[in-house]
Amino acid sequence: MPGLTFFTSEAKKLTANLAKFTQLTNILVAYNLLKNIKIQVKKWWPTGLTALVVLYATLWPDPMAADQVMLFPGADKLIHAIMMGGLSSAILFDIRRSGQSLSKKVCKRVGIGMVIFSLADEIGQSAMELGRTFEVLDFLADSGGVILGILLGRPVINCIFRKS
């Protein structure tokens, strides 16, 4: 059956070409993904860096060696507020840097997202069982920091971008 042999050999060639095409497509998809990640890192590096610092400080078992650092009572609540306010401001900064305006709607969305992040962070502290616990006062300090970060950050960021 010479005709069947021809079709079989052509099918094998087609399969080999299809496999090469699939490999090339996968390489192109991976390249585009890496390219997009690089673009996003350039756009959002202040937020990413701030988020890493916040996550380290809140999820690491003892990030500041608390037994060696003498602070005033309630200092940890102030630190929580500063961290979450700083992260909220970093997000607003990157949004403004990307060309978007910091409308009330955008600020409200960032605020809601950050409060959810703060809650998840507190829950994560308990879930990881590394000596950290969920504290309602920490969550309230986080939320207060988010509000202050947005209320103070928005006008400052707008002022920075008006001058440039």
Walk me through this protein's architecture.
By secondary structure, the chain is an all-alpha fold. It has one domain (43-163). It is 81% helix and 0% strand. It is built from 4 helices and no strands. The chain has helices at 2-59, 75-97, 104-127, 136-163. Helix 2 (75-97) crosses helix 3 and helix 2 (75-97) runs parallel beside helix 4 (136-163).
What are the SSEs and their pairings?
Layout: H1 2-59, H2 75-97, H3 104-127, H4 136-163
Helix pairs in contact: 1-2, 2-3, 2-4, 3-4
Question: Which labels suit this protein?
Answer:
0% strand, mainly alpha, 81% helix, 164 residues
Approximately how much beta-strand content do the residues carry? under 5%
Instruction: Give the overall shape, derived from the CA principal axes.
Output: elongated
Mean pLDDT: 86
**Helix and strand pattern:** HHHH
Q: In which range does the helix fraction lie?
A: over 70%
Low-pLDDT segments, ≥5 res? none
| Helical segment count | 4
Total number of distinct structural domains: 1
Total beta strand runs: 0
Distance between the termini: 78 Å
Structural class: mainly alpha
Task: Give a brief outline of the structure.
This protein is mostly helical and 164 residues long.
